[in-house]
Amino acid sequence: MLVLRRKIGEVIQINDNIRIIIQDVQNEHIVRIGIEAPPEIPVHRMEIYNLIQQENKAAAGANALQWLKGVTHERSSSDKDAGDE
Amino acid sequence: MSAVAVTRMPEMSDTLPNTKEAFYFPQGMVGFGDAHEFGLIYEGVGNIACLQSIDQPEAAFLLTPWNQSRLGAQPKLNREQAQCIEVQDEQDVMWLIVLNPFADKKWVTANLKAPIAINTEKRIGLQCIRPEPELELRFQWMAQPGS
């Protein structure tokens, strides 16, 4: 990990297209940071990003489409049974 | 973009955008950053479609349109999100929520913390993480089928 010291107003440049700007320090524990990045680069607080990532992985997968197909089949069968009555 | 064939049902026709062509997600989906092109597959099950990655088969998500009567007003894009999906007019945005049928035995749950915004004109999508702490990650959306 690269560790840098920056003062308020100073900038960290990442690659050609990402800038991190130290906006201000609000107290001993909170630093306001401005981030400039192209639209295709997601920028998020880590704790919420990890939460969403976990949930996406739980919800995703080949099982998702199979579940949908299974529900379709179940619905078609019950519709057919209802039609036969 | 690849063409994706889809079957549509009347109950979805007013809500889903044209699903014959793929959608582009510049940021992928959270946790699936390399999955950029997606097809939208509708199998005729109520208001649920499957967002299937063309790049990564394992990145497949069940989606349903944002329901204002149940959830209140649709989310709003911030400036960066609007820029990402090249939206000029919020009217061009369709909001969808990701469903999870695997987390709970009794309920299919909905992720209200990270809905998906789609620019229906340009076919660009983005999963938008919302910071409000009160939003539920697993909102009880519907009973599991057959339960």
Task: Give a structural overview.
- Chain A has helices at 46-59, 62-84; strands at residues 11-14, 18-25, 31-36.
- With 85 residues, chain A is of the alpha+beta class.
- In chain A, strand 1 (11-14) and strand 2 (18-25) form a beta hairpin.
- The mean pLDDT of chain A is 86.
- By secondary structure, chain B is mainly beta.
- In chain B, strands 1, 2, 3, 4, 5, 6, 7 and 8 form an eight-stranded antiparallel sheet that branches.
- At the A-B interface, helix 1 and helix 2 of A face strand 4, helix 3, strand 5 and strand 6 of B.
| Beginning-to-end CA distance, first to last residue of chain B | 39 Å
Most extensive interface, chain pair and sizes: A-B, 30 and 39 residues
- Structural class, from helix and strand content of chain A? alpha+beta
Oligomer: heterodimer
- What share of residues of chain A is helical? 40-55%
Helix and strand element order of chain A: EEEHH
User: How many beta-strand segments of chain B?
Assistant: 8
Uncertain runs of chain B = 1-13
SSE arrangement:
The complex is a heterodimer of chains A (85) and B (147).
Chain A: E1 11-14, E2 18-25, E3 31-36, H1 46-59, H2 62-84
Antiparallel strand pairs in A: 1-2, 2-3
Chain B: H1 10-13, E1 23-24, E2 37-42, E3 49-53, E4 60-65, H2 68-71, H3 79-84, E5 93-100, E6 107-119, E7 124-127, E8 139-143
Antiparallel strand pairs in B: 1-2, 2-3, 3-4, 4-5, 5-6, 6-7, 6-8
